[in-house]
Amino acid sequence: MTGVAVLGAGAFGTALAVALSGQGQVTLWARDLRGMRDSRENPRLPGVTLPENVILTDRLQDIGAPVVLLAVPMQQLSGFLRGAAPQLDGRALVACAKGVDLASGQGASALIEQACPAATAAILTGPSFAADIARGLPTALTLACADGARGESLQEDLSTPVLRLYRTTDVTGAELGGALKNVIAIAAGMSIGAGFGDSARAALMTRGYAEMVRLAVALGARAETLAGLAGLGDLVLTCTSDLSRNFRFGRSLGSGGPPDATATVEGVATARAVSALAAARSIDMPVTAMVAAVIDQRLTVPDAMAALLSRPLKEE
């Protein structure tokens, strides 16, 4: 493995650093490392000790690795890249955030290309929880890079015996799969929180998946990408597990309880951005529209479900 750095010491970034450290030295960067230096633990990953091969730093100028994983929340990525571009341009930058930038409506690869035009932009996405990766449990992800040869090289660099990467050149499909599944996970959580049952959840997952494919294909993606790990695989995980922040957020909305204000819920901004994009392009995305309406308190969860059920009958 060539040198790898991870920027962002949240749960997912730390988990990736731990997983990749078995292949060689990994540099883990964060603005604030108080506590982690001494304890060699991240409070967001209890019970996981950072191996000696994980080097901690709060100085971007210390990042010399040619491959850099950007484990920065989606809504912070644009600003981060603008500030860090002088240190990062020209390298392979692999975005790990899932979502759509609310300000620009763009995905992570476009943000990378704008801020760091000499860099190779790639996306790492798929069904994964930080705790599973950090514990060394088997996980399969999608690595998307428009440059096929560079994508193959990154696939080799970032795969481990238990972290299996599948590659694609369909960056748009991989990005949209990872972003849109968060919106549908919120809808699934709302349904369970409101007591609508597992059958309703399955229906929302299925019709939500149809929306994901509809938008992705309209934006130039390949439908088969959404049928893989980046789309369907991630959708199944986030709609059915209590470990999913987006699912838990939706369940809180459905039950009328307060959502966890400390958790990053990328699906909130994505629902707003994608709902506006779909409306502007006349793309039918009723589940996404209802999620955005509930988040913005324009509809209640029961009203949103009633609106979906009252839509005209049609062929599947």
UniProtKB/TrEMBL annotation:
PROSITE patterns referenced in this protein's UniProt entry, alphabetically: NAD_G3PDH
Top-level taxon of the source organism: Bacteria
Chain residues that bind NADPH: 12, 31, 98, 130, 245, 265-266
Enzyme class, first EC level, given as a word: oxidoreductase
Active-site positions on this chain: 181
MF terms in GO: glycerol-3-phosphate dehydrogenase [NAD(P)+] activity
Pathway given in the UniProt record: Membrane lipid metabolism; glycerophospholipid metabolism
Domain Glycerol-3-phosphate dehydrogenase NAD-dependent N-terminal residues, every copy: 4-147
Catalytic reaction(s) noted: sn-glycerol 3-phosphate + NAD(+) = dihydroxyacetone phosphate + NADH + H(+); sn-glycerol 3-phosphate + NADP(+) = dihydroxyacetone phosphate + NADPH + H(+)
The enzyme's E.C. designation: 1.1.1.94
Localization, UniProt: Cytoplasm
Glycerol-3-phosphate dehydrogenase NAD-dependent C-terminal domain segment(s): 170-305
Residues given in the record as sn-glycerol 3-phosphate binding sites: 98, 126, 128, 181, 234, 244-246
SUPFAM superfamilies cross-referenced by the UniProt entry: 6-phosphogluconate dehydrogenase C-terminal domain-like, NAD(P)-binding Rossmann-fold domains
Alphabetical keyword list: Cytoplasm, Lipid biosynthesis, Lipid metabolism, NAD, NADP, Nucleotide-binding, Oxidoreductase, Phospholipid biosynthesis, Phospholipid metabolism
NCBIfam families attached to this UniProt entry: PRK00094.1-2, PRK00094.1-4
Family of the protein in this entry: Belongs to the NAD-dependent glycerol-3-phosphate dehydrogenase family.
Function: Catalyzes the reduction of the glycolytic intermediate dihydroxyacetone phosphate (DHAP) to sn-glycerol 3-phosphate (G3P), the key precursor for phospholipid synthesis.
PANTHER family: GLYCEROL-3-PHOSPHATE DEHYDROGENASE, GLYCEROL-3-PHOSPHATE DEHYDROGENASE [NAD(+)] 2, CHLOROPLASTIC
Name the record gives this protein: Glycerol-3-phosphate dehydrogenase [NAD(P)+]
Species per Swiss-Prot/TrEMBL record: Halodurantibacterium flavum
